[in-house]
Amino acid sequence: MTTDPALLAAEIDAIDETADLRAAGHDLDVPSFNVAPTTEVVALVCRHSRSQPDEPARRRLRAMRWGLVPSWQKSLSGPPLFNARAESAGEKPAFRTALKTKRCLIPMDGWYEWRAPSVGSRRKQPFFMTPADGSHLLVAGLWSAWHAPGAAHRSSPHTAALLSCTVLTTDSVGPLTAIHDRMPLVLAGEDVDAWLDPDAPAAPALMAPPSLDLVERIEIRPVGDLVSNVRNNGPELIRRIDDPGTAEQLTLI
Fold first, then answer.
1. What whole-number distance in Å separates Cα of residue 8 and Cα of residue 10?
2. Whole-prediction pTM value?
């Protein structure tokens, strides 16, 4: 994600609740070309105001740790829950409560995926999936507010709790099946309000794989191996590389 949260909030008509964190030195406004689990990301939620609960819920942009920590978990130990299968999230203790009342969208420029090595090769080919028109993707996710056991709850959820999120995944669609059998659950613009609605459950149709029309607007871009090391973080990671073998295989889809 490379867009400044303040600009993103204006673009998607959301209240920017990351401003105080950025002023305190958090790197949320620094372009990131290689986001890794347990780092901070921005996530879009829709919530009622605590001071005016009867007012309509508003879109809010919040900072969250990528890797969901269920509210009932006793400590921060354990593997980060950085993704969840859309088909079964409602059955999993770690995700089912969040699916009912804490759904979010994670804005991103795109995502990386590695295709399995071809016959006779040990090398996985990384790809960057990004909208061909340069816009953002909105990926469905779940979030949680975790309090350390015994900690006093303060008035602001941003100081009292660790906010964390997970990305929902689904079966790949269309050309993306040539790269991997799974993909993030990308939502169409007309589904955003229904997905974020904190007062209604998510309709099953929102959990289905995206339409072929939406997927065909996503560029499948072969990139170099630099992205395989999380310490690398720069625009060179998303630069297209020339790979005749890759181009040939994608043409066969």
1. 5
2. 0.87
